[in-house]
Amino acid sequence: MKPPPDDPRPATARRPRRHDPGRRDRLIDAALTVIAERGVAGTTHREIARVADVPLGSMTYHFASLEEVLAEAFTRHAESAARVFDECLGSARDRTEAVEAVITLVSGYLLGSQYDLVLSVELYVAAARNPALRAVTQAWMARSRRALERHFDATTARELDALIEGLVLHSALSTDPMTPEQIRHAVERFLR
Amino acid sequence: MKPPPDDPRPATARRPRRHDPGRRDRLIDAALTVIAERGVAGTTHREIARVADVPLGSMTYHFASLEEVLAEAFTRHAESAARVFDECLGSARDRTEAVEAVITLVSGYLLGSQYDLVLSVELYVAAARNPALRAVTQAWMARSRRALERHFDATTARELDALIEGLVLHSALSTDPMTPEQIRHAVERFLR
DNA sequence: ATATGATGCGTACATCTGTACATAGCGCGA
DNA sequence: TCGCGCTATGTACAGATGTACGCATCATAT
């Protein structure tokens, strides 16, 4: 781990940039990348630093602990996902368009990279044990439910929310994921 | 970590039992306990050994690697859960009883200890990264779907399976879990 | 230009991890 | 009863991890 002593360059020459506002943000993004790729279990200070191309010491400088990094990362992920949810449903003008928006959202989840899906599941399991992360999850769920309540009554919104959750999760782990048509069938059947 | 050198008892006196058939089984059970309590991330050889009250060396003797322990543990969990599913649905004589069985299963999941639920989510996230565990998950899902297909057509079974998944997961992470009545409402609405 | 205080970083360290392996001890056949 | 061989265990070890901290370095004011 020790640098080769024959390296002629002084330490600072190798890493020129010092003043780097927004580095904290990049670190959080890097953390999300690492979580998606290696899981929470494989997320370490060193790995995040490597991905973000910053020195290890920068981690402890910007975050009090690894747990803080995880909490910030998951908060960002949840907020970003909720925003997509909000916007997609907010643009719907009637119930039919809302159904269409839901189908689009679910299909997008499944067809897109596994990135967001994996992050969500990782967040779930982390939330099961960490109260701070549980609050993040609950805020996220409350927000998506509220978005649905713009077009459906409270009970329907809650049940539909759960159905979406199940369709996405179940389908993602299956050998043959559901097609958008199958998603549409399930959602419309439920809302009929 | 080293034992106090002034312990007068020889090593063998402290741990009398040597011949212990079925120890492997107990270790797998202990592993499930540890996974449920500390998560896969907190599951180590030493922790399992501590819970099962066996020496560390016993772990590497009975299992080639930690991954093997996890695989066996999750396999056992999935099989046990699937058996419950099978039995509960198998005893139903008509579709109405099958619906009742489903509601009972879901409610049981929510009202019982978090034990099984946490294990399931841990299995999901582990399966996302480990091919061997993914096979376990898929076998489990296939089996529960087949049980549903005894009473519903294939499409309905698949969608219902996903709905159940969503209801359980969503509800478990929520601040106010759904009541059995709410579960019944959602399931019957879907099957109407 | 230069002193100076805040900012950022390299490195060390104690701890914990999975795993290997030399033996110790017991069951079992003679 | 007595050995022998397989089962089981204590221990060692290399590697990785989170975190602390002293010091280098830069922005800024003079």
From TrEMBL, chains A, B:
Where in this chain does the record put each HTH tetR-type domain?
21-81
Q: Which UniProt keywords apply?
A: DNA-binding
Q: Which organism is it from?
A: Planobispora takensis
* Region spans: Disordered: 1-23
Q: Which InterPro entries match?
A: Homeodomain-like_sf, HTH-type_TetR-like_transc_reg, HTH_TetR, Tet_transcr_reg_TetR-rel_C_sf, TetR_C_31
Domain of life where this protein originates: Bacteria
**Pfam families annotated for this entry?**
TetR_C_31, TetR_N
Composition bias (Basic residues) maps to 12-21
Write down what this protein is called: TetR family transcriptional regulator
- Residue ranges flagged as DNA-binding region: 44-63
Task: List the molecular function annotations (GO) for this entry.
Answer: DNA-binding transcription factor activity; transcription cis-regulatory region binding
Ranges annotated as spanning the membrane: none
